[in-house]
Amino acid sequence: MNQINVPRPNDLDAFWMPFTDNRYFKSHPRLLARAEGMLYWTADGQEVLDGTAGLWCCNAGHGRREITEAIQKQAAVMDFAPTFQLGHPIAFEAAARLAEILPQGLDRVFYTNSGSESADTALKIALAYHKARGQSQRVRLIGRERGYHGVGFGGMSVGGIGGNRKQFGAMLPYVDHLPHTHDIGRNAFTKGLPEHGAELADRLEDLVALHGADTIAAVMVEPMAGSTGVLVPPVGYLKRLREICDKHGILLIFDEVITGFGRLGTNFGAERLGVTPDILTMAKGLTNAAVPMGAVATSDGIYDAIVNGSPDGIELFHGYTYSGHPLAAAASIATLALHKAEDLPGRARAMEPYFEEAAHSLRGLPNVVDIRSIGLVCGIELSSRPGKPAARAVDVFRKCFDDGVLIRTTGDIIALSPPLIAEKQHVDRIFETLSGAIKAAA
Fold it and tell me: Which biological process annotations from GO are given for this protein (predicted)?
């Protein structure tokens, strides 16, 4: 009999872990070994309820047989085929299925492998669009403070998280930022869209006046900023951004890596918030995270300007070896079928009131300074310990995990985004466990 020798589970030296305190983790490892439905199990058999959909991505829950079987079937037929000057049917089918649920007018799909790649792709498309229209002077890109658009140099430059930037020196040139919209003083403990802050969109006019409208290519924002602590846009804010972009010929890009595929109770956040961008990025829920995949959707106008406005030959000098990978395409088709058959956005809408009340029931606990929620996502902000930012939330994270619930923290903010198949008993368990952990961290 063949024997396969594998490293012991605690042999952790080789893997340099991303966004992780490697020294702490490797002395206190928390290893997930199995997943199904709403649950993970650790390597030693402890059950852990998933309060974060993995990393905002397993919207249909874990271990979905339909997705697994689609990947297995495709792997047996064809494991890989290039999409440079060639193609394979399943990538085109996946794009057509995706176009069916995208916001109206966004039906051209460029495949990537992650949200980071989607962000950089969207920025390149925006620049290429203006150049194709004879406006190559439009090279400036506008992001927003506390925005997150992945870790490529494009997305990182337009993004607004200091910790993601300070180690790496100069970013892309010709980038500026809008202010963030987070305002605890006026909007604390908001359910849904906060009332105050729409006027912050007018800061785009200030940047237009500073740089000149004809130098700005695009504005990129998240409809709801997830990774910096669930920052929900104020009423009217995105509509105002849309109006200013239209006025000055600036493209509006929505990063929907987190808000796409049902998280806010609609297929995409653009629908929930009533504003359609020119370009939309996505990843995570596109394949339920079973195989890495991302995508960028654009309007026909953008596609036609670049493709039909170029000389013969390659129109966009950009792409990835794994763009439209056969296994990812199979996973996407199966995921989109589940998304439709089980009406995952509808399930999120139905659960939203119960989830919202459970989240806001934590108001009044020690050190809770704000709670904000929309769809099936919420942020609970804690006061920081003097001289030890993020330490309180880290203690809450570790206590919750040890008590059988997975949460996510960013700074001293707790973010919850359970799979969209969550039921009331799951919501109850998440918030009961979290309540105990917050009290313990007081």
Answer: biotin biosynthetic process
